[in-house]
Write a structure and sequence with these properties.
Number of helices: 2
Structural class: alpha+beta
Largest sheet: 7 strands, antiparallel
Oligomer: single chain
Number of strands: 18
Number of domains: 2
């Protein structure tokens, strides 16, 4: 295969990954706390031997997470929490502590505040948040302080990675991160609300059409290049 073929295949591979990413964004339009994901295309230039012109290749291996605020929906559930501004909730999972913006919580049988998957929500000291089962009223202040029947018990932690570019998606609305976390100063938590996905369905569908069109054009170029090579081989073989 010549250089044009390798270049086109590299582009097609990147477009295919982007199409999969766009499809995943669309599939999670209704997922609370979901963050839109994109793909970063980069150019790789390789110097050729013998003074030939350099070869430029495209590759798309870097995922970029859009951290824009998603719209909020009021639920009136006292254990539904939304973060306004930067930061993530920290939850304990079998794969280590992970970050999330999905604030649909509920107390388990032991009184520990957990996610819909049963993962424990952690406080500012990375300890589980406990809510007494017999509490008559639960209030959660904007700084995350949990009070039951007027008595403060714990403060839900809001954390941010030291380097946002290093977070790795671990699920629809979960992110893995290293131990280098910073506590968000002056967090803004809204009780009785949930943050929706920040995916704009109209823009995402338009992007899908654009990527599909680009992929079809690339495939057409590969077909034409294949036909050209076949024609040359047939001519030389006569």
């Amino acid at each position: 295969m010549d250089n044009a073929g390798y270049t086109s295949l590299g582009r097609q591979s990147g477009l295919l990954r982007e199409m999969q990413m766009v499809a995943n964004n669309i599939a999670n339009i209704s997922t609370n706390g979901f963050r839109k994901e994109g793909l970063v295309f980069a150019e790789y230039v390789h110097a050729m031997d013998g003074g030939d012109p350099s070869l430029s290749m495209a590759h798309a291996n870097v995922r970029a997470t859009n951290q824009a605020q998603g719209p909020m929906t009021q639920t009136a559930n006292p254990f539904d929490l939304a973060i306004e501004g930067p930061g993530f909730f920290l939850v304990e999972t079998p794969d280590g502590n992970q970050l999330t913006r999905a604030g649909s919580f509920t107390p388990n049988a032991d009184g520990e505040l957990v996610t819909t998957d049963g993962h424990r929500v952690l406080d500012v000291g990375s300890a589980p948040v406990f809510v007494p089962p017999d509490a008559k009223s639960v209030a959660i202040a904007s700084d995350g302080t949990v009070s039951t029947d007027g008595r403060p018990l714990a403060q839900i932690g809001i954390f941010a990675p030291a380097d946002p570019a290093k977070i790795v998606r671990a699920g629809s609305a979960m992110f893995q991160t290293g131990d280098d976390l910073n506590t968000v100063s002056n967090p803004q938590i809204i009780q009785g609300f949930l943050e929706n996905s920040n995916v704009n369905p109209v823009l995402e569908i338009a992007r899908m059409i654009e990527v599909q069109h680009a992929y079809e054009l690339g495939q057409k170029l590969l077909d034409q290049e294949d036909e050209r090579i076949r024609s040359v081989m047939q001519t030389l073989g006569r």
